[in-house]
Amino acid sequence: MLIQTKHLLTMLAVAGMTLFASQASATTYVAGDLLLGFRATGGTGSATNLIVNLGQADTVYRDALANITNVVDIGTLLTSTYGAGWDTRSDLFWGVVGVRTASNIGSAVDGDPVRTNYVTAAQTTVNPGTQSSTAWEITNGTARAGVSSAIESFAGNYNAFSAAVTNTALLPAATGSTWTSNNDGANSFTIAGTIEGNFGNGASGTALDLYRILDRTSGANPTGTVGIGSYEGTFTISNAGVVGFAVTAVPEPSRALLAGLGLAGIAFRRRRTVKKTA
Length: 278
Hints:
The chain is an alpha+beta fold.
C-alpha cells in the first residue's frame, strides 16, 4: 500500500496536479512546525505580530511533490490587523522559521536531526518554484545552536497566545520573544542577515525561498552539507491573503526528446531486420 501511495503522489506531481497541506490546520506549535510571521514597523498594526502555524516542515514542505496552492487563507486577519492596504505596504514584513529542536540530544525525526533549522530568504526576482535568493550559510555550530534556541523560544511565545481554532496568534510586538524582537531589518533570529520580504511591490512582488539547514548529517534524510541551506521551495501570498508553496517542477519530457527516442527505436528495428536478412 505504501508503494502504491508513493507512486500515486509521483504521478500527481508529474501531471502538475495540486496537493493541499492538511497539516496547516495545526494549532499548538509542536517541534518541527513552520511559523509564518508578520510585523509592521509603523502605522496600523505596528504593535501586533500576526503569527500563523503552517504545519510540519519535513512532511508538508520538504517532502512536497507538487505545488500547494492554498496552504492557508489569512486575508481577513491581515486586513483586520494591518489595514485594507496591507498588500502594498513597504513597512510590512513577512518570513518563515522552524526548528526540529534546540536540544543537542535526540534522534532524527523523519530525516531531520536535532537543530535542523528552516528559514526563508526573500527572492531577488520573483520566480516561485525556482531558487532566486542566496542560500543561507551558518557554518559555525554555536551560531546554529543560537538560531535553534531563538526559534524555539519564539515558538513558545506563539503557544502562549495561539488561538485554538484558527492556528494563529496575535502577539504583542513588545512582549517576550516576538517576530519584532527577533527581526530588526538587518538580523533575524541571531542570523547575520534578514529572512524577510516586504510588500512594497505588492503581494505579487514578494516571495520567500525556504531553506533547510542541517546541524549534523547523522540521521539526516535527505542528507546535505552541514551549515549550508538546501532550497526546499518558495512561499507566495496573493493580495487576497492566500498563502501558497511552489516547488521545483518535475520536468515533462519534451516533444523533441520523445521524437528522438522514437527515431532511435525505428533505427534499432531496421538494424535488426537488416542483420536477419543478411
